[in-house]
Design brief:
The chain has about 60 residues and is mainly α. It is built from 2 helices and no strands. Helix 1 crosses helix 2.
Length: about 60
Amino acid sequence: MSPRTKSDNPKDTMIRVRMDKETVEKLETCAEALNMTKSEVIRSGIERIYGEVPRNKGQVERE
């Protein structure tokens, strides 16, 4: 196996989450359809939501 190169943005923090079966299936469907890892799909979703956060309030409005 070839050695990995050092990343400019290492992913060294691990977070565990609980998901129901339906959410896991949605995550797996997205990952497969987009040819991404589940971690990449989750990070992409966070970036998308973060872009919607009002910068002057610092809080997300919840439905």
